[in-house]
Please model this.
Amino acid sequence: MKILSPVVLGLSFAVAGSLLTAAQETPSKFKVLQITREDTKPGKGGAAHDRTESAFVQAMAKAKFPAHYIALNSMSGKSRSLYLTIYDSFADWEKANKLVDKNAALSAELERDSVADGELLESVEQMIYTSDPELSYKSREDLSHARYLEMSVFHVRAGHRDDWIKLAKIVKDAHAKAGTSAHWSMYEVAYGTNDGTYMALSADNSMTDIDTGFAENSKFMEALGPDGMKELRALSASAVDSSYSQLFSINPKQSYPPDEWVKGDPDFWKPKAAMAAKPAAAAKPDAAKKP
Model:
């Protein structure tokens, strides 16, 4: 599988998980995905970060805050954590922000938690993506049993969106013909990184699902056929100028999941709470980053 085009590698998700989009196979409505990235200082991840992040989770739960998020820890690339929050629209995101502003106790607690958390971090950045149902394949929303998440990021050359859409259709049709277990949710960047950036997300219930994805590639290639492979490579060369894939583990101690996920697998989503770190009294509070 590694000998194939990066686009084939990235889009050939043959896994049993899913992420943050409508459960039906028909296109979902427009959604907004907020990603907060935290790069931790050397030696400041792990249990130390669990403690500071658990304070955010406890504050959200106490306030019964309606916007939930999932925390990811890197298993490849630079040591970092991602926090993914999805909204139905930018207007709904604004409503969530206003709820924080109106809740003085929650706002103050989040500011204190941000000070403590900031002591562990090298940098923080945010990116905003919007869902692209046309390029997604068999998206679902139940992550109650997911443990890992695969992320593939593609940068499409200016003026080549039509080629990109054709490429995605070929990949989707081949998976459907082959009957693989592939499914993914595709997002297009709105703010925070280069225009033309697309991100495919797919979650795994176990690493066995990753093995399955590689094993099913032969079925995908057979369904694609020589002519389909030739067209796919040509479209990849014309449409995509770079791509990469990363693997993350889902961290329940740092996540604020929906109630239905917790009910689906309470042993995973409700681990023993980490003790929240005390804020640094002399530090100046940063704006709360979550949701």
